[in-house]
């Protein structure tokens, strides 16, 4: 199991009137990637980012990995399906109505057992209070919105998340 932890804030929680500056602020604070929750108002009732905004943001924040959570009725309008696509990321949304859902963690553990080297992302209600519980079953790509974006010191939160995940992964490897 790889202790390499990557942390990305959900920019949906940022000041969207200053989205470019917010993205750079979060990246300067140590974010490894940016998470975009794309909602079309059909698949889910909320409406967030569309093609034009993502394209514009890509041109302004060009060297950053965008992790997109696609909650859209017609994903084929966003991506071209490639039948030879290899699985290199397992993602779990662990939130319902803005609350962390610990019931998703056994699924993370099962995936980790089957694919020890896989990057496993968990998104939804992640905070410093529950990061170790998220890391213990094997999550190593963490999406945290409010915990990072609203923090007085986002750098400290990102650093603490990475440290906690690294500590848990080291402990798990020693126990095995």
From TrEMBL:
Give yes or no: UniProt keyword Metal-binding: yes
Report the catalytic activity.
D-ribulose 5-phosphate = D-xylulose 5-phosphate
Enumerate the UniProt keywords alphabetically: Carbohydrate metabolism, Iron, Isomerase, Manganese, Metal-binding, Zinc
Q: What class of enzyme is it?
A: isomerase
Q: Does the keyword Manganese apply?
A: yes
Catalytic activity, EC: 5.1.3.1
Q: Give the family per the record.
A: Belongs to the ribulose-phosphate 3-epimerase family.
Function summary: Catalyzes the reversible epimerization of D-ribulose 5-phosphate to D-xylulose 5-phosphate.
Q: What is this protein called?
A: ribulose-phosphate 3-epimerase
């Amino acid at each position: 199991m790889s202790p390499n932890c990557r942390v990305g804030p959900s920019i949906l929680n940022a000041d969207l009137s200053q989205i470019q500056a917010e993205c750079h602020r979060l990246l300067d604070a140590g974010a490894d990637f940016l998470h975009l929750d794309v909602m079309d108002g059909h698949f889910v009732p909320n409406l967030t980012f569309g093609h034009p905004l993502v394209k514009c943001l890509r041109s302004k924040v060009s060297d950053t990995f965008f992790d997109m959570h696609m909650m859209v009725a017609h994903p084929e309008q966003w991506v071209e399906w490639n039948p030879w696509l290899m699985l290199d990321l397992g993602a779990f949304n662990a939130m319902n109505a803005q609350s962390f859902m610990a019931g998703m963690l056994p699924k993370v553990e099962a995936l980790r057992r089957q694919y020890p080297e896989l990057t496993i992302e968990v998104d939804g209600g992640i905070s410093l209070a529950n990061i170790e519980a998220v890391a213990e079953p094997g999550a190593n790509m963490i999406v945290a919105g409010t915990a990072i974006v609203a923090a007085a010191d986002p750098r400290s939160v990102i650093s603490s998340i990475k440290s906690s995940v690294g500590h848990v992964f080291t402990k798990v490897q020693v126990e095995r």
